[in-house]
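*** Residues and shapes ***
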Amino acid sequence: MFVELHVIQNHSPSNLNRDDTGSPKHATFGGFRRARISSQCIKRSIRRSHIFRQELEEHLGMRTRRLPELVRSALKEQGCADDIAEVAAKKASGFGTAEGKERPVSEDGTYATAQTMFLTDHDVNAVVEVMKKAAQEKGSAEAMNKVPAKELQTLSDLKGYRPITVDIALFGRMITSEAFRDADASCQVAHAISTHKVAQEFDYFTAVDDLKDLDETEADAGADMIGDVEFNSACYYKYFSIDFDGLVANLTGESAHRKDITDRDRNEARELAARTVQTFLKSAVLTTPTGKQNTFAAHQLPAMVFVEVRPCKIPVNYANAFVEPAKATAKTDLVSDSLDKFARHMAAMSKCFNLQADLRLILAPEHPELVLDGVSAERVQDFESLCARLRSVMLDG
């Protein structure tokens, strides 16, 4: 089963995702400049959203370089001496390197791994157990310190199967250390692009000291600070795809070649996967990137949410609907033209390439006139109904 989500969302003036100069990110598409929100920004806004964290709280991992300090804290809580915990932190920072080189984060003596890693509590606990066993076998921090970091992995079954969390199962994990298994992402997220060509604009702003005396001399009158912020206003097309079967395989361990999977494991993984996709959908639709939101408060909901459930993995991104940019005219507004272009392109691709779908759901609250030209889709009345309908199909499938 393969789930695809298509969203048309119009934002008022904003700077949701900045480049290294502070300008809103952009891209050239169809020969025209478009506003852009990077997939990395979108994924983080989903993963760190209140909805995602609240509804999947007990099934989430962490992205961090601070594994060594997590190991240090855990060992000290379990009664290990400070010098043992210090060596363990240093060794944990060197997993995957030739001689366990130290990587201080700061001058306070803390350590970090070479790369930011997606970790679970199971991963951290496994490293803690390795360090405890090394301390017991070597007898002292000095002897433990002489053991190369890579050799510590042989002291325990660090490579054994450990369950992964739903965020790792969704977004994947690639770690250079052999101590942790990689996971192929079951979810793909496109860079959101504007359906129309875009022009960058500038907000010139000033600030005045509240305590300035209104009777001060003319030389001291006026603003105390001036500046400008670049922004744009854009209607975005967003695309997401989730390999539901791949997500289940990641959660059961089948993708890691686990052999002892039971029917109960599969049923529990399927339930969790359906819950995860539903939560992902809610987060993707109801969450907006945080860039410059205190300045612009561009919190607009989508004009359209369109979901397709395919029987096999044939991902189709409909961005080519906007090769010719959408535009406002005397007869239609920008959002309506964007929706019309999407509907015509989706219908044409679906019919001409015989694209199969077990289910198509559409939510377009202000556009009941939207025609899909012969492609059948269930029009739902509200977002909760859409989520519930999708969940039932995933569990029945």
